[in-house]
Design goal:
This protein is α+β, with helices and mostly antiparallel strands. It has 2 domains: 137 residues, 3-Layer(aba) Sandwich (Rossmann fold); 46 residues, Translation factors (Elongation Factor Tu (Ef-tu), domain 3, Beta Barrel). It has 5 helices and 10 strands. It has a 4-stranded antiparallel beta sheet, with no helix packed on it. The protein has a two-stranded parallel sheet with strand order 1-6. A two-stranded antiparallel sheet has the order 7-8. A hairpin with a 7-residue loop joins strand 2 and strand 3. Helix 2 packs across helix 4. It is globular and about 65 Å long. The protein starts with 11 loop residues before the first helix and ends in a 7-residue tail after the last strand. The model has no long low-confidence stretch (mean pLDDT 92). Pfam families: GTP_EFTU. This is Tr-type G domain-containing protein. GO terms for molecular function: GTP binding; GTPase activity. It comes from Pyrodinium bahamense.
Length: 210
């Protein structure tokens, strides 16, 4: 997520190139910024082929979704859309074969599936942009987390020790129907609330007061 696109000197394309030069990764933009610094006013979604334009100074709470490509960005959108599709279809043989046979871009559903496969396999890194302080671009970012990053259901069962018998190994499926298991990783003291324990839940569920 290329943040602070509303700041002076913001340059999305320079940052993408820096990911290659300094991090050695394979970035694939799935959004393009509309403007930069003081003129940053929206993003173009290369997956859904939609323009998102924010309204006024409402901290990104409201935005218009338009079908039109912003004026002057037609060539840029075509270039990066083609790069995205070519990188994505390589992740799925069936989608790739269909793309090579017909020359038509995959459906949004197939494209998202391919992007997710590439992300999970570390074949490439989807790149988004916005300005988090003003909540602009955060909503699409959260959607991308859901669409492309692994969920607990993608992970193998969690293994751990029985706290009452450390010789016994326990295995828990990563779902809410299993018995509760978790790991407390931090304890803090608040003068008003008291002791606060932070923990990660691996299986089952816990309710307030339990």
């Amino acid at each position: 997520f290329v943040n602070k696109m509303d700041r002076m000197g913001a340059d999305f394309y320079r940052d993408v190139q820096m990911m290659v030069d300094q991090l050695g990764c394979n970035p694939v933009p799935i959004q393009l910024p509309i403007g930069a610094a003081a003129t940053f006013k929206g993003i173009y979604d290369l997956v859904n082929m939609k323009t998102l334009m924010w309204k006024g100074d409402e901290m990104g709470a409201k935005f218009d979704v338009l079908d039109e490509i912003p004026e002057g960005m037609e060539d840029l959108v075509e270039e990066y859309r083609e790069k995205l599709v070519e990188k994505a279809v390589e992740q799925d043989e069936e989608v790739l074969e269909k793309y090579l046979e017909t020359g038509e871009a995959p459906s949004v559903e197939d494209l998202k599936k391919c992007i997710r496969k590439g992300t999970l396999a570390f074949s490439f890194v989807p790149v988004l942009c916005g300005t988090a302080f003003k909540n602009k671009g955060v909503q699409p970012l959260l959607d991308a987390v859901v669409d492309y990053l692994p969920s607990p259901l993608d992970l193998p069962p969690t293994k751990g020790k029985n706290p009452k018998d450390e010789e016994e190994e326990l295995v828990r499926e990563n779902n809410t129907e299993e018995k509760f298991s978790g790991l407390a990783f931090k304890v803090a003291t608040d003068p008003y609330i008291g002791t606060i324990t932070f923990f990660r839940i691996y299986s089952g569920k816990v309710k307030a007061g339990e």
